[in-house]
Amino acid sequence: MASEHEYSKVESDILIIGAGGAGLRAAIEASENNKSVVIVSKSILGKAHTVMAEGGIAASLGNVDKEDNWKVHFADTYIEGVYINNWKMVEIFAKEAPDRIYELERYGALFDRTPDGRILQRAFGAHTYRRLCHVGDRTGLELIRTLEDKVLHTNARILDEMVITKIVVEGGKVKGAIGFSMREGRFYVFQCKALIIASGGSGRVFKVTSNSWESTGDGLAIAFRAGAELKDMEMVQFHPTGMVWPPSVRGLLVTEGVRGEGGILVNKEGERFMLRYSPKKKELDARDVVARCIYREITEGRGTEHGAVYLDITHKGFKFIYDKLPSMYNQFKDFAGVDISKERMEVAPTTHYHMGGIKVDPEEESTNVPGLFAAGEAASGLHGANRLGGNSLADLLVFGRRAGIGASHYADGVKFSPISEDEVQKEIERVEQFTKRKNPINPYELIEELRQNMSSKVGIIRNEKDLTDALSVIRQIKGKLDRIGVAGGVRFNPGLIACLELENMVQNAELMVWAAIERKESRGAHTRSDYPGTKDEFLKNIVFKLENGQAKMTMEPVLKPPKELEEILSEGEKTNA
Amino acid sequence: MREVVLKIKRSEPSVSSVTRFDEFKVPVEEGMVVLDAVHYVEQHMDPTLGVRWNCKAARCGSCAAEINGKPKLMCKTRVDSIGEKITIEPMHAFPVVKDLVTDVSHNFEIAKKIPAFTPKKDAPSPLIMQQTDIMRSKEFRTCIECFLCQDVCHVIREHHSDYVGPKHVVKIASLDMHPIDGIDRSNFLHSGGGLGFCDITKCCQEICPEGIRITDDAIIPEKERVVDQVFDPIGRLVHRIRGSRWQ
Predict the structure, then answer these.
(1) CATH assignment of A240-351, given 3.90.700.10, 3.40.1280.10, 3.40.50.300, 3.50.50.60?
(2) For residue A337, how far is the Cα from the chain centroid?
(3) Which residue of B has its CA nearest to A336?
(4) With DSSP H G I counted as helix, E B as strand and the rest as coil, what are the percentages for chain A, rounded to 5?
(5) Looking at the annotation, which residues of A are catalytic?
(6) I need a surface site. Which of A240, A435, A453, A548 has the fewest CB within 10 A?
(7) For residues A466 and A455, what is the distance between their CA atoms, to the nearest angstrom?
(8) Which residues of A touch B103 (CB under 8 A)?
(9) Residue from the list B43, B54, B181 with its beta carbon closest to the beta carbon of A213
(10) Is the CB of A214 less than 8 angstroms away from the CB of B54?
(11) Is B227 on the interface with A (CB under 8 A)?
(12) Residue A507 neighbours by CB under 8 Å, 6+ apart
C-alpha cells in the first residue's frame, strides 16, 4: 500500500447524508431523541433540491374542501401509483401528513391563508379535493428554510459541501462513511451507529430535467454498493410541463400550480387538447397522463417550432398571476423574455422525479443492511408507479421524521466500532486516482453521452429496441470508467466530482434501463409502446441487489392491502373512474 | 458563431498567494446566461475551474459572483445583457476557497445566534392568521440566501465591524413580523447584531436578485424598533403595558 493519507475523523450516533427536507427533518427528530447528529451534504446548507419545489405540499386538512380526509388521500395516492406502492407506507403517509404540516407551521412556516385564517389549499392533478398547502409557488423554499432554522438551533453538526464516496459496512452492519470536504480539500471518515440516506433523486441522469446539479443519485449508488436493495428503478416521472426555450433553461420546471390555478394546455392549432384525451379531469389529470398527451401532440406534429405545446394562463390577468405564481412570472420574464400574463408559455415534459430508490421498511425506514436507513426521494415505496404533485414534500416530512426515530432506536442498541484503517486508505486511494491518471478521458464527455442516451431512448414512451440500445451505450460508458480523470486536487474540483458522479449515474442508469426492459407492460410513468396496458402478472416490484459484485434482479409480488383499505380503494376507484 | 470572452479570476489562497485572470473564448447560444458560459469552460476547457452552483434557476442562490464588478447571480445574468467581454470574480466580502468559490460559512454561525421563531404562548392550535397579516413577513421569505447583499455591504467590506449584515436583518425581520412570533430581538440586533453600523445607503436593496426592499422594509423598521425598545424606556413601558409590538 502507498503512503498513509491524512484525514479527519468525526463521530456521531447518527450520520445523515443529505440536507434537503428529509435529511433536515430526520436530524430534528434524532436530535430531539438526544442523539448526536452529523449532517453532511454535497451543496451548502439550504440549497438542496427541495428549494425548487413549487406548487405545494399535500395533506388532507380539509380546510377548503371539508369532505377531504386521509382515506381519500390514501386512495388517490395508491390508485395513481397503479397498485405497486407499499400500502402500509401510503396509509402511514396519508394519516400523518396533516400533523406534519401543523408541526411545520409551529416551527415558523407561513402558508397562504383561507379567508377565515386557516391554511389555504389548492387543486392539483389527480387529487380528488383541493389539498395542496402552499406558499405561492415557492413552497419548497419555505419548507427548507423553516427546517434549516430549526436544525441550526439544535446540536446537530452540519458539514456541508462534503462528498460521500463510500458507506462502510463491516461484519454485516453499517459502521460509517468515507468522503471528502470540497471546501477544505480534505478527506473525512465518519463513524456512526446508524446512517440515514436522504440524498434525493437521480434526475440528472437525463439530459432534459428539472433537477438541480446535485441530483445524480449518489445515495442510491453508494447504498447499492454497500449491499442495500433498490426497488422500482424503472419508475421515473416526467413532469408534463418544463420550459423549452431558450435552450439554456430547457427542462426547468413550470409548476403544476399554473394548471391548478386555471392554466390550460393548447396545441399549435389552438385546440385545448386535454378535452379530447381526458374530458373529466382535463389539465389536472395525473402527471403521467398529461405528460403522454403533450408528448403525443408534439410527436404527431401539433407542437410549436421548438417542440412544445402552449400553456396559457393569460385569461387570469397580471394581478392574479403575480400573486399566485410570482416565481413563474419572473422565471419566464428573466430567462425567456416572456410575460406570462400576456403571452402563452411554451412547455414540454421534463424528467422530474424518481419514484424508485432504496427499499425501506414502511414504519422505521430501515433497509436490509442493519444500521442503514433511507427517506425522501432516495427511498422508494410510497409513490409506486407515479407520484402525485405535492406528495413528495409531505413524504419528506412524514418519512424524514420516521427515519430519525428509526435510526435513534437502532442506535440505542449498538456500540461504536472503529472502521478499519485499511478500508479508509483504500477508499482515499480510489478517489485520488482520478487526479493521477495519464491522458484521462474527460468525464463531462461521457456524462453528456449518458444523459443524451437516457433522454432519447428511455423517455416517456419506451420500447424494447430503444431500451436495449440504451443499455449497450451505458455498458460501453461503464467500460471506460477506469480511464476517466481530471487534473488538479481534491479542493473544489468540479471535474473530480464529475468523475465520481458519473460512476454513480452509470450505476443508476443501468438499473433503470434493465428494469424498464423487464417490465413488459405499461404502468404509471412507465409506458411501453410494445406492451400497452397493465398486466396482473406485473403486479410486482423489481428489486436489485449486489451479490458477489454482480447486480441480481428479483421480481417481488406486491403486498396486498388489508380488507378495510381495499374497501377504501374501491370507493376511490368509483370517484376516480 | 458569435463568441464571448470570459476573463475569470483564479486563485487558491491556501496553496499560493498568486492570483491571475484566465481568458476563455466561449461560443454564444440564444438565451445563454453567464453560468452557461462558465459551464462551457468547465466542460470543454478546464474542469478544475472552481465554481459553485446548484439549481441554475435563480432559486438556490449558490452561484453569486461579481460580474464586471457587480454582485450578481451567474445563472440569472444573460450574456447578451453585458457585452462581449465578461470579467468574473468571486465575491469580495468572503474569503476565497478557490477561483469563484468563497467561504460563506460565517453566515451560518450568525444564523445560529439569531433567537429562533418562538410562537406566542396563547397561540391557538392549529394557528389562525389572516393573509394580510402574513404579507409583511412573506416578502422576506423570498430570500434565497445568495449573500450578495452581504457582499455589497460596505460596512462588512470595509470596516469588518460587528454588523451582522443585511441578509440577517432580513431574517430577523421575517421572524419579528411573523404574526404569531412572541419574542423580542431588538436587544440582539442592538448589541450582538451591530445594526447601528448600517448607515442605510441602500446598496443591498439595489442588488437583491429577489427584489426584497431590504433597507426600506427590513432595516429601517428594525432600526426604529431598536430605538423604541432599547433607547426609549418610557415607550418600552407603554408597549409592555399595552402589549402592542408592531402595529
Answers:
(1) 3.90.700.10
(2) 30
(3) B31
(4) 40, 20, 35
(5) 239, 259
(6) A548
(7) 11
(8) 183
(9) B54
(10) yes
(11) no
(12) A217, A220, A221, A224, A225
Q: pLDDT at position A1, please? A: 47
CA distance to A15, A148, A176, A301, B11, per residue, from A45 (Å): 15, 7, 21, 44, 24
Cell digits for A429? Answer: 486511494
Closest CA of chain B from A176, distance in Å: 25
Give me the residues paired with residue B66 across strands. Answer: B71, B89
pLDDT in tens, chain A (577 residues): 445 889 999 999 999 999 999 999 999 999 999 999 999 999 999 999 999 998 899 999 999 999 999 999 999 999 999 999 999 999 999 999 999 999 999 999 999 999 999 999 999 999 999 999 999 989 999 999 999 999 999 999 999 999 999 999 999 999 999 999 999 999 999 999 999 999 999 999 999 999 999 999 999 999 999 999 999 999 999 999 999 999 999 999 999 999 999 999 999 999 999 999 999 999 999 999 999 999 999 999 999 999 999 999 999 999 999 999 999 999 999 999 999 999 999 999 999 999 999 999 999 999 999 999 999 999 999 999 999 999 999 999 999 999 999 999 999 999 988 999 999 999 999 999 999 999 999 999 999 999 999 999 999 999 999 999 999 999 999 999 999 999 999 999 999 999 999 999 999 999 999 999 999 999 999 999 999 999 999 999 999 999 999 999 999 999 999 999 999 999 988 877 6
**Plot region of B21 (φ>0 → left; ψ -120 to 50 → alpha; else → beta):** beta
Residue positions counted in chain A: 577
**Domain A435-540 top-level CATH class:** mainly alpha
Q: Is the dihedral of CA B67, B73, B74, B80 positive or negative?
A: negative
Judge contact between B203 and B153, C-beta under 8 A: yes
Question: Which residues have a Cβ under 8 Å from the Cβ of B17 and sit 6 or more positions away?
Answer: none
DSSP symbols for A302-332: IS-TTS-EEEE-GGGHHHHHHHH-HHHHHHH
ipTM computed for the complex: 0.94
Copy the grid coordinates of residue A274.
Answer: 386535454
Taking only Cα atoms into account, the Rg of chain B, rounded to an integer number of angstroms, comes to 21
Q: How far apart are CA A27 and CA A192, in angstroms?
A: 14
- The whole-angstrom distance between A26's CA and the closest CA on chain B is 19
Q: Where are the domains of chain A?
A: 240-351, 435-540
CA distance A361 to A374: 9
The whole-angstrom distance between B60's CA and the closest CA on chain A is: 5
- B60-115 tens-digit pLDDT: 999 999 999 999 999 999 999 888 899 999 999 999 999 999 999 999 999 999 99
* Distance in angstroms (rounded) separating the CA atoms of residues B33 and B49: 17
* Lateral strand order in the sheet of A132-133: A57-58, A132-133, A121-122
SS3 category, A157 = strand
- Give every CB contact of residue B156 below 8 A, 6+ residues apart in sequence: B93, B150, B163, B165
Exposure string over B195-219, b if 16+ CB within 10 A, otherwise e: bbebeeeebbbebbbbebbbbebbb
Which residue pairs, CB below 8 angstroms and at least 24 apart, start in B71-77?
B71/B148, B71/B151, B71/B152, B71/B207, B72/B34, B72/B148, B72/B207, B72/B209, B73/B146, B73/B148, B73/B209, B74/B33, B74/B34, B74/B35, B74/B38, B75/B33, B75/B34, B75/B35, B76/A334, B76/B33, B76/B209, B77/B33, B77/B34
Q: CA nearest A238: which of A355, A339, A92?
A: A355
Do B58 and A331 make contact, defined as CB atoms within 8 angstroms? yes
Amino acid letter at B1? M
